[in-house]
Specification:
The protein is an alpha+beta fold. It has helices at 15-27, 64-67, 104-121, 128-138, 143-149, 157-171, 183-201, 230-251, 258-272, 391-415, 429-448, 453-458, 460-482; strands at 32-41, 46-55, 72-83, 91-94, 97-98, 100-101, 276-286, 291-300, 303-305, 311-319, 325-332, 337-339, 345-348, 360-363, 367-372, 380-389, 427-428, 486-487. The strands form 4 sheets. The protein has an 8-stranded mixed β-sheet with strand order 5-4-8-2-1-11-15-14, with no helix packed on it. Strands 9, 10, 12, 13 and 16 form a 5-stranded antiparallel β-sheet that branches.
Length: 490
């Protein structure tokens, strides 16, 4: 793994070297000293996420024959783990320069090499036919399968098998000579997948879009010679099952050694590949000095109703163990909204509560910040963030709603002589203006003047209530006018 290169410049690119180094960097994340992630809650639908990874000088993590004589090198660098799905407003820079994100098939090939590397450390061989299946699984894009699941929120196994028949019919099976795939054939294949699903669900949350959990989803992307008939599919799935089982046996060894550690890494990587992808960028980096990897993207806010009517809850998934220490901060940019920090909870990736005690934590209504360097911390965590209107915003809305309701009640009492109030004395237009105009202006400002759609969503109840009262007030005015209950001429 060594190229001749000119001293002091970026050397000529060698793809095999770059792939081998990417595998080494995937294996040991200690070259990442610190990962700092900032989550800005900006609207009712989206949050902006910025991540900075502080990287040590790579010379101590790479083979000496590769580093010798070089100051810079063009490499494939793993930049982080991201949920599978479309990238929104995504950008990446490495060592101060924009980086090129590799295509999906290139990612899949490198991930297969990573699995082979870990398997070799565990003393297990990966056969070529299995390499092709793994590449199809790692490179699987879920949208063609999601089309068939749109009307099924929680499909049963029988429904999934039926949908798979339509999925294979639409997307095809390369090299398939058996005509349309019957439900009975899919059921046979699904039986061969059961053991794989069980292994995956031990380490990753259940996901009907995961090709790692259900390798049948990856069949349309296999090489044609691997799918001549139904039995070859069963054989291929059995080969994957036997491979994962062998890795699982190694991972359960009572003696901690290299093979056990590699086996656990392999199982974790395979299981998580159905939900996440380890992004790899082609870039030129310094070898003898530290540098930074910066990414930014926009993700869904995941806003749901909270336990209290006045609250909403944002759910954010955070990568939390891909560097020596991970730092996370959540900020609310809207001054009318605050995080209810005492009620914030941390869940593992399967959404089970965990007792996470970070090395440092700071919580205010505008900011939740913490970091941890415990090597045994979870790889990923969910943050459940309760949000509510800030105290000044709640007080102002309560005051305006109270004034508007009071104006409506006073109007009805005096204009319609409720309980004999006002006697036979008719109200004049000036009297009505005194009641209506201040409350109408205040309520209108409350309804239309929101800093962001986030505060609009959280204050929806107050806004609807105030708007409803204001509407009733004006309709009452029109009715009173029609009944001549207001003396406009005085």
């Amino acid at each position: 793994m060594c190229n001749e290169c000119s001293s002091g410049g970026a050397d000529k690119f060698d793809e095999s070297d770059a792939e081998a180094i990417a595998v080494l960097l995937l294996k040991d994340p200690k070259w990442r000293v610190r990962a700092v992630e900032r989550i800005d809650l900006t609207s009712a639908s989206w949050c902006d996420r910025r991540r900075s990874v502080h990287v040590k000088a790579l010379e101590s993590f790479l083979p000496s024959e590769f580093v010798s004589g070089r100051k810079r090198a063009r490499l494939y660098v793993p930049i982080g783990s991201f949920p599978k799905g479309p990238l929104l407003d995504f950008s990446v820079s490495v060592a101060g320069a924009p980086a090129f994100l590799l295509p999906r098939n290139e990612h899949a090939r490198i991930h297969v090499e990573y699995v082979k590397f870990l398997a070799a450390q565990a003393g297990i061989t990966v056969r070529p036919s299995l390499e092709s299946l793994l590449a199809a699984i790692f490179g699987f894009a879920s949208n063609p399968w999601e089309v068939f699941l749109q009307s099924e929120s929680n499909p049963s196994k029988g429904v999934i098998n039926s949908l798979l028949c339509n999925y294979f019919k639409k997307n095809g099976l390369p090299g398939w000579n058996g005509g349309p795939v019957a439900v009975e054939v899919v059921e046979t294949w699904a039986s061969a997948v059961d053991a794989i699903q069980k292994l995956v669900r031990e380490r990753a949350p259940e996901n009907v879009l995961s090709a790692a959990e259900n390798p049948l989803l990856a069949l349309p992307h296999l090489e044609p010679h691997l799918l001549p008939n139904p039995q070859t599919v069963v054989d291929l799935l059995s080969e994957l099952k036997d491979f994962l089982t062998a890795v699982w046996v190694k991972s359960a060894s009572p003696t901690p050694d290299t093979s056990k550690g590699a086996s656990n890494q392999l199982l974790d990587f395979y299981a998580s590949s159905g939900n996440h992808w380890s992004a790899i960028a082609e870039c030129t980096v310094p070898l003898l000095e530290p540098f930074m990897i910066k990414t930014s993207e926009r993700r869904s806010l995941g806003l749901k109703s909270g336990h209290m009517a006045s609250q909403k809850v944002s759910k954010q998934l955070v990568t939390f163990n891909d560097a020596y220490s991970n730092h996370v901060s959540v900020r609310v940019l809207d001054t009318n909204v605050e995080v209810v920090s005492p009620q914030a909870t941390v869940l593992d990736e399967k959404r089970d509560p965990i007792d996470l005690t970070p090395d440092y934590k700071r919580a205010t209504p505008e900011l939740l910040s913490f970091y941890d360097a415990d090597p045994h911390r979870p790889a990923r965590i969910w943050l459940n963030l309760p949000l509510q209107a800030s105290l000044p915003a709640r007080v102002s809305r309560l005051v305006i709603l109270t004034l508007t309701v009071t104006a409506l009640v006073a109007f009805c009492f005096f204009v319609f002589n409720w309980l004999g109030v006002g006697g036979s004395q008719a109200m004049t237009g000036a009297d009505i203006a005194v009641i209506l105009v201040p409350s109408a202006i205040a309520a209108s400002l409350l309804i239309v003047r929101e800093v962001s759609t986030l505060s609009t969503e959280i204050n929806k109840g107050w806004t609807l209530a105030t708007g409803g009262v204001l509407m009733v007030l004006w309709f009452s005015t029109l009715i009173a006018y029609g009944l001549s209950a207001i003396n406009w001429g005085k």
